[in-house]
Design brief:
By secondary structure, this protein is an alpha+beta fold. The chain has 6 helices and 6 strands, in the order H-H-H-E-E-H-H-E-H-E-E-E.
């Protein structure tokens, strides 16, 4: 309902929650915790009079709620048209901004119950470059915000009805610290819809 209030109509799940129901109790609890976090984040953003589409306030709110300290320059690379994600050291998505939901056509159940590599497809060489770039940040080899050498490439939905295809560009990766140690990674991307074919 909160997404719909800003023009994004996303079906939450299919009847019976088949993907969610097939998971272990531990995984289900983890997903519920993640959804509660995002719901509360949206409620706080709206309660203070901000739009969910306002990247600067929404992302900063996520940093505070997650307890992360970003590099001072990250907002210089960010616009309201960008996708912004936060990933843990073990590659779990901890946060995604409103633009993420504008772009994808998956149900919320699919997004949170299925691993991202079962939802999207890209050239394996690009995936390798992205993983290598992220590893440098997580390991501490790269301590500043940086633009990884990953060329613009196609990102395809492989399980959705719409089978959306995007041209994706990784604009920035940046370490996020907790207790003065790198604990997560911020990724800023652009994604342009290039194909939307019904099957």
């Amino acid at each position: 309902m909160m997404l719909a209030s800003e023009g994004v109509h996303r079906r939450p799940y299919v009847e019976g929650l088949p993907h969610f129901q097939s998971l272990s109790l531990e995984k289900k609890q983890e997903i519920v915790k993640t959804l509660v976090f995002f719901k509360e984040l949206c409620e706080e953003q709206i309660a203070e009079g901000y739009k969910l589409k306002d990247n600067f306030t929404f992302v900063w709110r996520a940093f505070r709620k997650l307890g992360y300290v970003p590099r001072a320059d990250v907002f210089n690379f960010m616009s309201d048209d960008d996708l912004v994600e936060i990933y843990s050291k073990d590659n779990k998505q901890l946060y995604c901004n409103f633009k993420f939901f504008e772009c994808c056509s998956y149900t919320l159940e699919e997004l949170y119950s299925l691993e991202w590599w079962n939802l999207y497809e890209r050239d394996p060489a690009m995936t390798s470059k992205i993983f290598n770039a992220a590893s440098k940040v997580i390991s501490g080899d790269v301590t500043e915000s940086y633009v990884p050498q990953v060329e613009p490439h196609l990102l395809k939905e492989i399980r959705s009805e719409e089978k959306r295809v995007f041209m994706q560009q990784i604009k920035l990766m940046s370490p996020l610290k907790r207790d003065k140690r790198v604990d997560a990674i911020l990724v800023i991307e652009s994604a342009t819809l290039v194909e939307n074919r019904k099957v």
